[in-house]
Design a protein that fits this description.
With 96 residues, the chain is α+β, with helices and mostly antiparallel strands. The chain has one domain: GIY-YIG endonuclease. The protein is built from five helices and three strands, in the order ββααβααα. It has a three-stranded antiparallel sheet, with helices on both faces. It is globular and about 35 Å long. 25% of the residues are buried.
């Protein structure tokens, strides 16, 4: 069985602050953000809503993509979310 890796974006609300992360267990990591177990930006600003993610087959690929997205301007990230999840629905229930 091959491992999967995820790049994801969280927010507080439609048009709210964005957080980009990478993990090998999307359900666990988003749950940790939602429960406030992750110190830093997401806990400080209450960023819990999963609005976008993509799957990668290698950790290097996922980390490279995360770094790429983090360098993007906000408009590009919003456009990517809008294409993937037009209503900015919280996708957490869809992945558990």
């Amino acid at each position: 069985m091959s491992q999967q890796y995820y790049v994801y974006l969280l927010t507080t609300r439609n048009g709210g602050p964005l957080y980009c992360g990478v993990t090998n267990d999307l359900v666990r990591r988003v749950w940790e953000h939602r429960e406030g177990f992750v110190a830093g930006y997401t806990r400080k600003y209450n960023v819990k809503k999963l609005v976008w993610y993509e799957v990668h087959s290698s950790p290097i690929e996922a980390i490279t993509r995360e770094k790429q997205i983090k360098k993007w301007n906000r408009a590009w990230k919003v456009e990517m979310i809008d294409r993937f999840n037009p209503v900015w629905k919280d996708l957490f229930d869809d992945i558990v």
